[in-house]
Amino acid sequence: MVKKEKANNKVYKGVVEEIKNKIVSGELKKGQKLPPKRELAEKLSVSRASVREAMRALEVIGFIESKQGAGNYIKESFEDVLIEPLSMMFMLQQINAEEISELRRGLELEAAVLAAERADEEDILKLEHLIKEMSVTENEDRNVILDKEFHYTIAKASKNKMFLNILNVISELIDNFIKGIRKEILSKEENKERLLKVHSEIALAIRERNKMNVYKAMEKHCTIINENILLRTKKE
Amino acid sequence: MVKKEKANNKVYKGVVEEIKNKIVSGELKKGQKLPPKRELAEKLSVSRASVREAMRALEVIGFIESKQGAGNYIKESFEDVLIEPLSMMFMLQQINAEEISELRRGLELEAAVLAAERADEEDILKLEHLIKEMSVTENEDRNVILDKEFHYTIAKASKNKMFLNILNVISELIDNFIKGIRKEILSKEENKERLLKVHSEIALAIRERNKMNVYKAMEKHCTIINENILLRTKKE
């Protein structure tokens, strides 16, 4: 477990540690209710205000949720737990659009390779269905949704929650910080055809469980996207 | 910017939002001091207790630090900002050692490919120097340090802070949750030679700026590591 230095005046940190310890020991599991504030305060010999601060902190990190009048619970799902810290890093310009695109590339490539190995029939049919719709729709907003679903399905087919979580966060970061970029890329005539082609290549290679071809097709895909993102961010 | 639903009783969340807005607008930059609690409380018409809760929360996420008697500051560096959420996810068994290893593979491969393009002379000399020491040292603890430094240098040579940050976090997670695994892997006779060979191949390929060879050598490296991690986790 990750140790943090405890300052004397940081009573609430002791409470956060205590809850973490209960998680490590298995005493607290996802979805479970936390002990009442009063009980925690007594047990740790701290004020209820310190317990409340600790709860707030854990809520902001996204690990507990407080249900009105019903107490605090360990969350069931942690899918959005990385959004806040990554968004803040982005906002403070510790990271830029190019770095995000490169990270996306690394993860998309590996997720696609894993998907070629692990996708089940349902995943593959979903990909093929999405491509069919992409090839006929003229609606640009619909195309954005289909594109997102396509990549979400690949991440899901990797059967690795880390890839799914982080790629989702990156997708949100791109939407939030490079406004309208997805629509811009998908609407350009020269991109439309190229993207439809690589999307089809990716789906086919996953169907054929051909890792090398998946890698190559996804590499082409990322090159198209990253070219466009660079073009946009250099204009700004 | 990422919107969160505001419950009426979550006054502190409004304060967190306000600080985030100041970051987005550029009013607050890294290393800067936050306005005094009193001032924020007045401006937002909330209690000082709510402002304090917001500060605690931002501190737990790792974005501000409070300096004894000197107020709250936006941090200078956010390198450790992902450790807490990822550790918690791990602890709550949302992710397992295999998933972490796969994520590491995806990131190491891409970081190494970027390093082949971007490593400067200093990075390359460092890698070569580390290999020279690895090939002669008999001390197992020293070998663990050299191995970590080798991979840290590649991540750094990618010149992408996202790879550096996330790979560091993964490295810490592995150390924390698969205790002693690094030493175990590096101490096995059959691994020693194979690892020294792939480390040398990686460094050489970076020196020659040969992306394909870097990829292949790093792939071999990850296979050795992941085999060993799987062996261990299946025993447990």
Automatic annotation (TrEMBL), chains A, B:
<protein>
    <submittedName>
        <fullName>Transcriptional regulator, GntR family</fullName>
    </submittedName>
</protein>
<dbReference type="InterPro" id="IPR011711">
    <property type="entry name" value="GntR_C"/>
</dbReference>
<dbReference type="InterPro" id="IPR036388">
    <property type="entry name" value="WH-like_DNA-bd_sf"/>
</dbReference>
<dbReference type="Pfam" id="PF07729">
    <property type="entry name" value="FCD"/>
</dbReference>
<dbReference type="Pfam" id="PF00392">
    <property type="entry name" value="GntR"/>
</dbReference>
<keyword id="KW-0805">Transcription regulation</keyword>
<keyword id="KW-0238">DNA-binding</keyword>
<dbReference type="GO" id="GO:0003700">
    <property type="term" value="F:DNA-binding transcription factor activity"/>
</dbReference>
<dbReference type="InterPro" id="IPR000524">
    <property type="entry name" value="Tscrpt_reg_HTH_GntR"/>
</dbReference>
<keyword id="KW-0804">Transcription</keyword>
<dbReference type="GO" id="GO:0003677">
    <property type="term" value="F:DNA binding"/>
</dbReference>
<feature type="domain" description="HTH gntR-type">
    <location>
        <begin position="9"/>
        <end position="77"/>
    </location>
</feature>
<dbReference type="InterPro" id="IPR036390">
    <property type="entry name" value="WH_DNA-bd_sf"/>
</dbReference>
<dbReference type="InterPro" id="IPR008920">
    <property type="entry name" value="TF_FadR/GntR_C"/>
</dbReference>
